[in-house]
């Protein structure tokens, strides 16, 4: 478990560093897709393995009821949800937590490029099942 926590910590720090580089270069004010493309370039340069717009099934009582695309699935273990809005609200945190629970991922990041300073939150899925 300690090894997993170290890997999560190291990986989320690298992702956040990439996001900071993007925000420093572009500032705020662009659409989310611009930051998504720039972050993909930055993570590639940093050697971080990811899938962009990764489509995952959503289940209810063991039946697939739809799909949802997470902005980034990093190394198969961390979801990264991007926003480009003036202020993160509770609904954005709830959405990001829902993705963690739906995909049974332990750790996620919610990153907002829309503020003057980059805003990011590490999120933990309390319902995670190893």
UniProtKB/TrEMBL annotation:
<protein>
    <submittedName>
        <fullName>GxxExxY protein</fullName>
    </submittedName>
</protein>
<dbReference type="InterPro" id="IPR026350">
    <property type="entry name" value="GxxExxY"/>
</dbReference>
<dbReference type="Pfam" id="PF13366">
    <property type="entry name" value="PDDEXK_3"/>
</dbReference>
């Amino acid at each position: 478990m300690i090894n997993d926590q170290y890997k999560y910590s190291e990986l989320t720090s690298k992702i956040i560093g990439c996001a900071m580089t993007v925000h420093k270069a572009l500032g705020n004010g662009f659409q989310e897709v611009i930051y998504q493309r720039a972050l993909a370039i930055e993570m590639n340069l940093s050697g971080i393995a990811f899938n962009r717009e990764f489509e995952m099934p959503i289940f209810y009582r063991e039946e697939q009821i739809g799909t949802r695309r997470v902005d980034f699935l990093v190394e198969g273990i961390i979801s990264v949800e991007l926003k480009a809005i003036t202020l993160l609200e509770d609904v954005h945190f709830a959405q990001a937590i829902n993705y963690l629970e739906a995909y049974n991922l332990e750790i996620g990041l919610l990153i907002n490029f829309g503020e003057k300073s980059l805003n990011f939150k590490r999120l933990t899925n309390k319902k995670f099942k190893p």
